[in-house]
Design goal:
This protein is α+β, with helices and mostly antiparallel strands. It contains 6 helices and 14 strands. It has a 5-stranded mixed β-sheet with strand order 3-8-9-6-7. The chain is globular and about 65 Å long. The relative contact order is 0.11.
Length: 278
């Protein structure tokens, strides 16, 4: 009996240090804190997405990296309730539709870049080629008429705010893509920080013949973000971009062309109106 008691005492003595060490190891493990997503579009100030009384979707930088999208409309195509059309097939004639406005979607969807509207003054819609996907940090989508109260014109269907990247650790890279109809796209970027200054510079070039006659396009883009942190509460920001493009506008497709099974059609000429049916 004495031997058994002695053995039990020794066993307990050996167990408690082990349990104490395991507890200490568990206590010393670094804790991981996950913060709520912060949005600025819904109320024009930073706010947790969980506390915003609106239908809000945030496309994060991780989502962009994991996607196979080659431009912003192609990325938006995967979002619920967002309908994207490209009638010319040249990545330039996009229509992004929120809340199913159809033909008037361009007039009822407000597009912002870092909080500044880029909708055309002639109501022809937004030029989605102005901001290459390489410059995008995240996209905030606000569905519904709530946006019209805060932003006014063009926001009846919703608001799409494209937030561009700021310079962080030094990064540089380039990408080349090619496809059908002599489509070619090349892009490059460089970003980083220097003392209190952060910078992000990107550029891209796109050319394509399109799948219809007179739907060819050529676009050149250059973007620059500069941020100067004067102190912990004051930051100076410069966001600028250059865009130049030349894009054809394909004409109507004649019924005779459909019957012939043609995939490329000539632009409609004045003397061809007799051959066109609704």
């Amino acid at each position: 009996m004495k031997k058994r008691i002695g053995f039990l005492v020794i066993l307990i003595a050996l167990m408690f240090p082990g349990l104490s060490q395991a507890q200490d190891d568990k206590t010393n493990e670094p804790s991981v804190t996950t913060l709520d997503e912060i949005v600025v579009t819904a109320t024009r100030q930073e706010e947790k997405i969980s506390s915003v009384p609106a239908n809000v979707t945030v496309v994060t930088e991780t989502d962009i990296k994991n996607s196979t999208a080659y431009d912003i409309p192609d990325l938006l195509r995967s979002q619920v309730g967002v309908h994207v059309n490209d009638i010319a097939g040249n990545r330039r004639s996009y229509t992004v539709d929120l809340r199913a406005f159809g033909e008037t979607a361009s007039l009822n969807t407000l597009v912002l870049v870092d909080g500044r509207r880029i909708n055309q003054a002639d109501l022809s819609g937004s030029d989605w080629a102005l901001i290459p996907l390489d410059r995008v940090k995240k996209i905030e989508i606000i569905r519904g008429g709530r946006g019209s109260v805060l932003y006014g014109d063009n926001a009846s269907g919703g608001v799409i705010n494209i937030i561009t990247k700021e310079g962080e650790a030094f990064k540089a890279g380039a990408e080349i893509n090619g496809g059908s109809y002599d489509t070619f796209k090349g892009s490059a970027f460089v970003s980083g920080t220097q003392s209190k200054l952060s910078y992000a510079l990107s550029g891209s070039y796109l050319t394509s013949d399109g799948y219809r006659d007179n739907s060819d396009t050529e676009a050149k883009d250059l973007g620059l973000n500069l941020d100067y942190y004067q102190n912990d509460t004051v930051k100076w920001n410069l966001s600028s971009g250059f865009h130049k493009d030349s894009t054809g506008l394909p004409g109507a497709i004649k019924t005779s062309e459909f019957a012939a099974g043609a995939t490329r059609t000539d632009s409609l000429q004045p003397d061809d109106f007799a051959d066109v049916e609704d």
